[in-house]
Amino acid sequence: MKQIMFKDTADNTIHGGILLDNGDAICGCCGGLLKADDNNWTIIEKYDEWIDLDETICGDDLDYYEEENENSD
């Protein structure tokens, strides 16, 4: 398994996730399973080392999270 940054080609957003050994991936945003043969996502980067869940791998999700937290105060 490796952490990945991937692009959801259906809505043109960047997400982080976990690439499984069989080529499927788990989305770090929603926990959904992305099948290896599904053409709605593409890997942008694979990480050889485990990295912190920050701007590097969260992409658009982190911006959304930060905006939601600012609005909840």
In short:
With 73 residues, the chain is an alpha+beta fold.
Give me the Rg, rounded.
13 Å
DSSP summary: helix tally:
2
- Percentage of residues in helical conformation: 10-25%
Class inferred from helices and paired strands: alpha+beta
Topology:
Layout: E1 2-8, E2 13-19, E3 25-27, E4 33-34, E5 41-47, H1 55-58, H2 60-71
Question: How does this model look, in words?
Answer:
The protein starts with a strand and ends with a helix. A hairpin with a 5-residue loop joins strand 3 (25-27) and strand 4. It has helices at 55-58, 60-71; strands at residues 2-8, 13-19, 25-27, 33-34, 41-47. Strands 4-3-2-1-5 form a five-stranded antiparallel sheet. It has one domain (2-71). It has two helices and five strands. Helices cover 22% and strands 36% of the residues. The chain is α+β, with helices and mostly antiparallel strands.
Name the descriptors.
36% strand, 5-stranded antiparallel β-sheet, alpha+beta, globular, 73 residues, 2 helices
